[in-house]
């Protein structure tokens, strides 16, 4: 099974593998090309051959400089050490909780730690900002990256949708996300969830690179607000029981 690769913003590539188990789900990784290429999500360890082959269609794998992901799960970072082995200059970049609790031990080379809001220049025309999003979408180590030149937010499992959709869309991402959450509750809907979504919505993103859905190039702020309202309603109804 091969992975398809498509450019979703200037120099930003979406690598996607559709897994047709149950309702079917896409697993996406994102490559930011440039002087210091960054891969956001490594994919599962068993998918390394296909995902690395897709990366190689854009850059020599050895040129990969940064490996980022949101949180410790196999689809996010299962192939982390495979990529570290294949790319001698590559380094994992993550937030303070992630590196402190897990990555410093799990990764075969020491990671680079960024604090919330810290910017990492990845070449002369690219900068990624780390946003600490504890428990959003889930896991206390969760972070997201925001690439400022293309205004792309790498939003991990937010807005997960079942099925094999298009590469990019500006259509409704709220109803599919609510349906997926109802079927397989995966969001950690703590009191932090809605404020975190509103913070993400306020970044000014033009594209949201979603792990399990088409890349979204509609109104990101409105989508985040709608999901925040849904989470608040779920939290209120759970509290009222
Ligand atoms: Fe996840
Ligand atoms: Fe995921």
Biggest sheet, open or closed, and with what strands and sense? Answer: 7 strands, mixed
Overall shape: it is globular
What's the helix-strand series? EEEEHEHHEHEEEEEEHHEEH
What's the helical proportion of residues? Answer: 25-40%
| Mean model confidence by pLDDT | 97
How far from one another are the termini? Answer: 46 Å
Q: Please give the order of strands in the largest beta sheet.
A: 1-2-3-4-5-6-7
Q: How many runs of DSSP E, i.e. beta strands?
A: 14
Description:
The chain is α/β, with parallel strands linked by helices and 241 residues long. Helices cover 29% and strands 24% of the residues. The protein is built from 7 helices and 14 strands. Strand 6, helix 4 and strand 7 form a beta-alpha-beta unit. Helix 6 runs antiparallel to helix 7. The protein is globular and about 55 Å long. The N and C termini lie far apart (46 Å). The mean pLDDT is 97. The chain binds fe (ii) ion (2 copies).
